[in-house]
Write the structure tokens for this entry.
Amino acid sequence: MLSVDNLTLHYGQSQILHGISLTAEPGKVTAVTGTNGVGKTSLLKAIAGRHPYSGGTITLDGQPLKHLSAYQAGRAGIAYVPQGREVFPLMTVQENLETGFACLPRSEHKVPEHIFELFPILKDFLHRRGGDLSGGQQQQLAIARALISRPRVLLLDEPTEGIQPNIIQQIGRVISQLRAQGDMAIILVEQYFDFMWELADSFVAVQRGAVSMAGRAGEIDRDALLAKVSI
């Protein structure tokens, strides 16, 4: 289980996160939601080692991760799918997938077949450049690349942003399949409320860098949560 406790984060003199706490359990989806600019992406960057946090703790299975780098986070089993996808545009789909090998021993440098079962279109486009893919195809590639590293924790930042409805449905099915495997904790940052509401097992609403509401599915009030993230 990933646990974030009282996390703070600064950009220069500006404090962005104010004591954020949450947990993410294997076989569960933890949704983090809120309006633009409240610190959701900063939270994921801190967990993924993309930006140093100022205070608080991040632990994985009880082991503190401290102020980890992106590489250390990857080695620990944390995979990050960033907002905007960050696909390498001049590299082929195959080469983009192979960048996921970075944190794996050489003996595991092979794209598993189940990646293509989740995202069949990628197998047809292996030799196509990443920059030539549609937005939805790039999002599938970005998620597939993260899964190559066999993560214990998967961080998804706005996976539905700018994506056509049929691809959104497919991404939802993939998240459900990954959750059903039971060995991966998923943190989903998302503003598409209905998508998030259908998938998540627990919810964390963020306002001005702090948790304004949190609760498990079945216990949290839908309208109250929607009001928190629609301000």
The mean pLDDT is 94. The longest strand covers residues 14-24. Residues 2-229 form a domain with the Rossmann fold fold (CATH 3.40.50.300).
